[in-house]
Amino acid sequence: MRIDLHTHTTASDGTDSPADLVRHAADAGLDVVALTDHDTTAGWAEAAAALPAGLSLVRGMEMSCEGRGEDGRPVAVHLLAYLFDPKNAAFAAERERLRAERTSRLRAMAERMALDGLPVDPDEVMAAAGPAAGRPHLAQALVAAGVVGSVDEAFGDLLKTGGRYYVHKADTPLPEAVRMVSDAGGVSVIAHGRAASRGRLLAMEQIGELVADGLAGVEIDHHDHLPADREILAGIARRHDLIVTGSSDYHGVNKSVKLGEFLTAPVEFDRIVARASGVDVISG
Question: Which residue intervals define the domain Polymerase/histidinol phosphatase N-terminal in the entry (predicted)?
Fold first, then answer.
């Protein structure tokens, strides 16, 4: 089985619609694909309705969190949440709060750029971004305006964490996020926890601490992880009997990575399904 458990669509910052994502997943030879847009479940219904025969859909989300950095200071962390009940009241309220944070933060960054003379129209950026607004939408506007040559270039300079135009947003404390996912019957996995190219890193000891809160696994095989990073995470997974996943983190044309470029072993996927009680995997 070919299983990719981390993808994005136009419901957040990808370029494929949810319907196109599942069709492309089938064309890429996947047997299972997880839809994990940022802080939203908005693409779930469309993806399920368009699911091709032979492909299974894992409904999920990538949650914006705040953990403890290696230096002891707060650091942004992403948490993959799989097969949770979207109707769980506390978790639904937190997703709504996170989306509001994303929207206000993106507008503030766009307005800073416009005041500085960059050819960015905040209203146009927000209209294009939709309800799950994020920095990639602003990066796309900068590419379209000719300010930068690529989304990666925008993140390396104008949009980088702590940079001139960066605006902080209040993400969910990581232990609280893990508990919310568990309370909603879902399964939580730390996303790209050693992606040093993205900035400061999560303190690895916090991963072990989160097991008591219900953390289920860690994403290991990812294009932003070097071999040494994968070894570090694999050691933590062994010590705490965590589920290990591999995923593309596909965003369509926003990134060069392809669907199925990294995969999750069937035995690890079975552990996720066995642990979940929120919603079922949908089979086409």
Answer: 3-67
DSSP secondary structure string, the chain? --EE--B--TTTT-SS-HHHHHHHHHHTT-SEEEE--BT--TTHHHHHHTPPTT-EEEEEEEEEEEEEBTTSSEEEEEEEEES--TT-HHHHHHHHHHHHHHHHHHHHHHHHHHHTT-S--HHHHHHHHGGG--HHHHHHHHHHTTSSSSHHHHHHTTTSTTSTT-----PEEHHHHHHHHHHTT-EEEE-STT-GGGSS-B-HHHHHHHGGGT--EEEEE-TT--HHHHHHHHHHHHHHT-EEEE---B-GGGSS--TTSS---HHHHHHHHHH--SSPPEE-
- Look up the pTM and report it: 0.90
134-188, pLDDT tens digit by residue?
888 899 899 999 999 988 899 888 988 888 998 988 999 999 999 999 999 999 9
Number of residues that this document lists for the chain: 284
Q: How far apart are CA 98 and CA 96, in angstroms?
A: 5
**Token duo for residue 235:** 């050691």
Q: pLDDT tens-digit profile of 57-96?
A: 999 999 999 999 999 999 999 999 999 999 999 999 999 9
* pLDDT above 80 for 132: no
